[in-house]
């Protein structure tokens, strides 16, 4: 076994750090998944995406034949460093989900039409999958697409669509055969230009005041049939490719580790009450425990990344990395709040708020970690059934 | 990065698994546990024929000259099958100080006999204060010119009763830095003045009290340098902790395998209990604990074997494995229901070992404190 990165990978990590130090102004930080606060920050994030694209980093995990570098491990390093340092600009929906699905199932024309805009960072894609009645049970989605001449006509509602308000296009899962059993055999994968008439976007603000999500309503939206990816009623296979390209979840772990390191720093310094938290044995135990979980999360994520870089398709391993990473993120936020006590409750711009340890915000962001993109319960189901071969209930 | 075992290591694992399941079934485990020796001299001989005792010993001393990752493989299988024996104390506690710091005479005299299975070694480190830090070492070695005279008590010396030699961690200088003034002495376990008393314990692992009453040890038996023994102990403990974690991980895997198999066949309410989500999620969490433990153990073992600074990672691994092994065995019993608590059921063999493994080489709290110190807290 060898747990080290190659000299080339280590050099790349340093290059990324230097790039971030150069490009990102101090104080600017993104939350989970690169979410930003204001319109100004959003514009800055888009600028960063273009810079990443210009360096060839944005799509570096793609195969060489599509303009990538086959550099899966480096792309994980990029994500780890960007998220640890809170730098915005990585694009997950287009680069990490749609593009691999297009490469596997798209027509030559679709690839030529859509991949360049993703690689250059010019076209922003959002993911239209979840619905009010279809969360963990995604195949039960009911947004309907009916064929009409050269088009599909879409009616229905999506929810939790990330960055819908900024997106140019959406990759959408629709029901094309409502009677199909099993249900996932009646789903198709469509590409929708968000300028198409009939689309209404309504913001869905989280308790952390994140303005990243929306409800999206489709009212007789016409999508040309040439925008169908893969076969009609076989969109589930396309969706699985989209969901399976990057499974390490390193971004979440990096962000949580950043918070652990800040808590450690916080605990070493005298607080306004004169007390140095690190002198408390319980604080020492709790911080060590968080650090331990962080190191384990990281190695689980690296293993998944390494397997993917070998061309393997980790299944339960990825579910484990995700499950453990999400619960780690929440553990950090909860313990951080406990260590900081009343000061931990202060929002960022409060007079007495700690400028480094933003636990009030982290605890509100973390609450959704075990839900988004596959709940912890769904991960445990997958581990039990696929990993351990237990019978279906 | 390469996160797979080598083909040779896979072969080593398979042969170890075959050997242990053939030679040491659970009836044999119970028989050995109840025996006075606490190990089977016959199995011990066969292990030596396979070269296990000499795994970390250089070839010039009749060893195999293999690495720590190879040892991890063996210990995982030992933990999985369960093999009551002085294997860990011999190869991971008693032998490393001699390999690392012993004189040529000591190496020539002792190591080939370890490799051949003739000599059993152990490390006499802990005392009634029970700690794995230098300040806990009080046993005094008084300088008498050509020799030292030992007076005091070592406690929880595993398999002292079976040992031919003990590497005794003694204090030769007090005051000042507790890590300064510790000397390692190679002591014949049959020396006059030594009284060894094994105790019945949860792990049935022959934990002994060793009382030294005016025990004379020639100065030629110093391992390494006078007063400078602690770094050798610290390095040895890293290896031994890795070995212990590997044994624990093997035990966890066995408990998981047994529990999954049982959940698939045990029927209640007309269906296998493994089809109930409550049981599935418990087993998923057990699996997660096994895999997290493996991953952090392998990383720690790799760092130790590469000679990298590994104190933090080893502490992380032990702290994590402690809690994981206990929880996996507790849940394993729960999945089995009442039968899992029976004395004749195998779950108890693992449950008892999970409790015994926890404080050995440092419990979870002490490992977390080590990590906290490494973080500058």
Structure classification of chain A: alpha+beta
The number of domains of chain B is 3
Percent of residues of chain A in helical segments? 40-55%
CATH architecture of the largest domain in chain B: Up-down Bundle
| Biggest beta sheet attributes of chain B | 4 strands, mixed
Total discrete domains of chain A: 3
Strand order of the largest sheet of chain A: 1-4-5-8
Give the C-level CATH assignment of the largest domain in chain B.
Mainly Alpha
CATH class of the largest domain in chain A: Mainly Alpha
Determine the CATH superfamily of the largest domain in chain B.
Butyryl-CoA Dehydrogenase, subunit A, domain 3
Mean pLDDT over the full residue set of chain A: 94
Number of helices of chain A: 11
Q: Which descriptors would you attach to this protein?
A:
heterodimer; A: 393 residues; alpha+beta; Butyryl-Coa Dehydrogenase, subunit A, domain 1; Butyryl-CoA Dehydrogenase, subunit A, domain 2; Butyryl-CoA Dehydrogenase, subunit A, domain 3; four-stranded mixed β-sheet; 11 helices; 8 strands; globular; B: 377 residues; four-stranded antiparallel β-sheet
Describe the structure.
The complex is a heterodimer of chains A (393) and B (377). With 393 residues, chain A is of the alpha+beta class. Chain A has helices at 7-23, 39-54, 72-84, 93-105, 108-119, 235-244, 250-268, 281-309, 316-340, 359-366, 376-387; strands at 125-128, 144-148, 151-162, 169-175, 187-193, 199-204, 213-224, 228-229. In chain A, a hairpin with a 2-residue loop joins strand 2 and strand 3. In chain A, helix 4 (93-105) runs antiparallel to helix 5. Chain B folds into three domains: 7-119, Acyl-CoA dehydrogenase/oxidase, N-terminal domain (Butyryl-Coa Dehydrogenase, subunit A, domain 1); 122-229, Butyryl-CoA Dehydrogenase, subunit A, domain 2; 231-374, Butyryl-CoA Dehydrogenase, subunit A, domain 3, CATH 1.20.140. Chain B has helices at residues 7-23, 26-34, 41-50, 68-81, 87-101, 104-115, 230-265, 277-305, 311-336, 347-357, 364-374, and strands at 121-124, 140-143, 147-158, 165-171, 182-188, 194-199, 207-218, 222-223, 267-268, 271-272. The A-B interface holds A 1-6, 73, 264, 267-268, 278, 281, 283-285, 287-289, 291-292, 295-296, 299-300, 302-303, 306-307, 316-317, 320, 323-324, 377, 379-381, 383-385, 387-393 and B 1-5, 69, 260, 263-264, 271-272, 274-277, 279-281, 283-285, 287-288, 291-292, 295-296, 298-299, 302-303, 313, 316, 319-320, 365, 368-369, 371-372, 375-377.
